[in-house]
Amino acid sequence: MGVATCCDILIAILLPPLGVCFKTGCCSMEFIICILLTILGYIPGIVYAIYVIAIQDRSELGGELHRPINDA
């Protein structure tokens, strides 16, 4: 988790759709979901934005989190 991710999470806490927009783009499904959740309640928008930012960084590891336990 680098400095850029920490800044993205800080932005996601202040304005959840903006943090998701910086990470995935403004025409993505994640952005639209985040806007809807933020309209319905500020806290669900924050939780979803942090979830999107954290999962996006983990998927960039090259699938290391999704490899099987037994490589047989």
From TrEMBL:
Any idea where this protein resides? Membrane
Where does the UniProt annotation place the signal sequence?
Answer: 1-21
Entry protein name: Hydrophobic protein OSR8
Organism of origin is: Papaver somniferum (Opium poppy)
Q: What is the lineage of its organism?
A: Eukaryota, Viridiplantae, Streptophyta, Embryophyta, Tracheophyta
Return the GO cellular component terms, semicolon-separated: membrane
Where would you find the membrane-spanning parts of this chain? 31-54
Q: Which family does the record claim for this protein?
A: Belongs to the UPF0057 (PMP3) family.
Please provide the record's keywords in A-Z order.
Answer: Membrane, Signal, Transmembrane, Transmembrane helix
Q: Name one Pfam family in it.
A: Pmp3
Q: Does the keyword Nucleus apply?
A: no
